Write the structure tokens for this entry.
Amino acid sequence: MTTVNERLSVHNVTFLGAPLADLEAYWAALGVSRLSILDSQLLDPEFPMLLQRNDYTVEAVYHLFANGQLSTDPQAAQDSLCAVIDAAASVGARTVYLLTGGRGALAWKQAADQFCVMVTPCVEHANRGGVALAIENASSLYADIHLAHTLRDTITLAEMGGLGICIDLFHCWAEGDFEAMVQRALPRTALIQLSDYVLGDRALPARAVPGDGTIPIEAFVAQALEGGYPHGFDLELIGPRIEKEGRFESARRACDFVGAMLNRLGA
């Protein structure tokens, strides 16, 4: 079995639809020791037993807050997230990160205030359980289920709600104030997600294996490390390029490329 840099994980959305047994085989073949999983996988009763069979740590768990709509009953949204937080704490998971739920007809500030009111009991619950709770930046193509579409807005929302931040490089690398916003975000950053983009690719979601595209990944990772970022780097690989090459083959190349980069940077 090969091994990769211990700070690397491969997000399970890369293998969306694969059963836990297949995921376990992929993790072993890739040589990863950190896992980045969906909340449905965390809540699978087989998952704790899988962890007992292997020397894995759970870096991050993804959760869609309020079932994707901020008009959802607040208590139901809070109960669902708190159940994920409890399950995360039980397996020693470090971070639960969120999409916020969509705003519907609300203005951004109204929706941000509503999200913060709804999520506050969960933030307190996560703090008591020793689990970081974070939000990520995501494309405005996901405006039906999320509020934060630039790194600046993600930071603003995180500061309003007392949350951490998941930086998805793919969705913010081209922003004009990117380096300054990364510096501002780093003290709150609980997870960094990496993938690449090939200029001119319009085949959504258009992600590429790191090293195949134009995103200045190494400069960004170097800035994060120099800024004291202590956590993991998660590879989120989806889209036509990934499917064409093969999910596992793409993940293996990404692990090799980013692992070598992290080793070179002393991570």
Summary: The chain has a mean pLDDT of 97. Residues 97 and 134 are 4 Å apart (CA to CA). The beta strands are 8-10, 34-38, 57-64, 95-99, 132-136, 164-168, 189-194, 233-235. The first strand starts at residue 8 and ends at 10.
